[in-house]
Amino acid sequence: MVGRAAERRLLEDLVASREAELAVVYGRRRVGKTFLVRRVLGERLLFSYTGAANVTAAVQLARVEQALRAHGWNGPAPLTTWFDAFDALRALIERSDPAQPAIVFLDELPWMDNRRSGFLPAFEHFWNGWGSGVARLKLVICGSAASWLTKKVFQNRGGLHNRVTRPIHLAPFTLGECKAYADARGLALNLHDLVESQMVFGGIPYYLRLLDPRRSLALNVDALCFGDNAPLAGEFDQVFSSLFARPERHRDVVALLSKSHQGVTRQDLARGLGFADGGTLTQVLDDLGQSGFVRHYQPYGKAKNGGLWQITDPFVAFHLRFMTRARTPDFWSASTDSAARRAWSGYAFERVCLNHVPQLRRALGIGGVVADVSSWRARPDGDSPGAQVDLVIDRNDQVVNLCEMKYSAGDYAVDAATERTLRNKAEAFRRATKTRKALHLTLVTTYGLKPGLHAGVFQSTVTAADLLA
To answer: Is there a contact between 239 and 208 (Cβ–Cβ < 8 Å)?
Structure first.
């Protein structure tokens, strides 16, 4: 297994615990949650079951009964309610070796909660009425529908209130983990390829597993996303349909967000989609945020109602930018020098950088400094053309890093016009925010800063290699 060191330790600590444990493993679909649990806990599982999507409660219960019998339960049939199913699980646990942890894994839990199925009350009763008092019981639940887990488990106001003992969030692979995975798989990806793979696939292990070591990255993208029978051609629709009961609303929201790199206000979203600015939009945005597709952020110095919504998932952004339009099977390899590709590269690299802020801070040597992270922009006003900084790190040590993220095939060169623009931007930031802190212009780029007369405008530089750490 590559990476996931912290998550593996959490699961091993769960097994060794002397108390009953209710762990929730959550994260974006295809991120490797099931793989992690099964690889770490493996043969130590006393019982495991994976919920089936889009089936009736009766079919779900019949499948649970089959799984229970396969694991050694021999009680009376049939199981007609979820209370029956959890009673059977209790009987299976009580018959197991009392000297060993009783580790139970329920995967895709949201799919078990059919409408009016009675699943959640039965689950609450099982844990509160019995399971939480059994020290050797280690119950691990998992699901890709993070919004369901948040509302029904983490924010539960009933029987599961404050019952989760170990929340384990599984994020996409970082650049460093992608490199370790590529090395383990024998994928010949240089630094440029690693960054671009993150820009396209977003560090999702399932997508990386599909890469063919015999092909270049560009040819892999062609084959997976644009070629005949491309495996990821329908991935966007499949993922959204599996997570959301009415996915067309969620697709409409991300489609609108994809048209603005800086982000969109809630009010503009409501107007653009014809939604009422109320409960429905709130629910859709919460669903997308909890599932890791979008984020809400507060621009520097803005009031609470001035927040913006922005796509954070690279593959979703890539799909909406190219896969909904391209038709030729060699589209990606043939578009290397296109204007659309160059424009996308800049925005996609910024998205990767924003997803690696902890690594960026460590590279700057400020990992332990308390800081607020945001963005900033000033609209054109009179003689001022306006300005924008996509990453502002406002530090408690009286320094503000204004980060410029520049994707480049080689060392980034600064000319006189660029230096003038950067200095004007820093001055505009100082005037608008009235900050008295020192302003450090920081370059985040693929390879490095090319020495030259104007390179001194940057006080610090972070490269993609730095983000591997």
So the answer is: no
Judge whether 201 lies within some domain.
Answer: no
Residue 409 burial (CB < 10 Å; 0-12/13-18/19+)? exposed
- From CA 9, how far away is CA 321, in angstroms rounded? 38
- For CA atoms 369, 357, 282, 256, the dihedral sign is positive
* For residue 278, pLDDT beyond 80: no
**Which residues partner with 309 through β-bridges?**
264, 296
pLDDT at res. 305 = 67
For position 382, what pLDDT does the model report? 64
pLDDT tens digits for range 135-186? 999 999 998 887 788 888 888 877 787 889 999 999 999 999 999 999 999 9
118: left (phi over 0), alpha (psi -120 to 50) or beta: left
Mean pLDDT, rounded, for 361-365: 95
> Domain limits at 243?
213-355
> Domain holding 307: CATH number?
1.10.10.10
| Chosen domain end from 328, 355, 382 | 355
Cis amide linkage into residue 358, ω under 30° from 0? no
- Domain boundary among the residues 323, 355, 387 is at 355
pLDDT tens, position by position, 66-104: 999 999 999 988 999 999 999 999 999 999 999 999 999
Tell me: do 344 and 394 sit in the same domain. no
Residue type present at position 17 = S
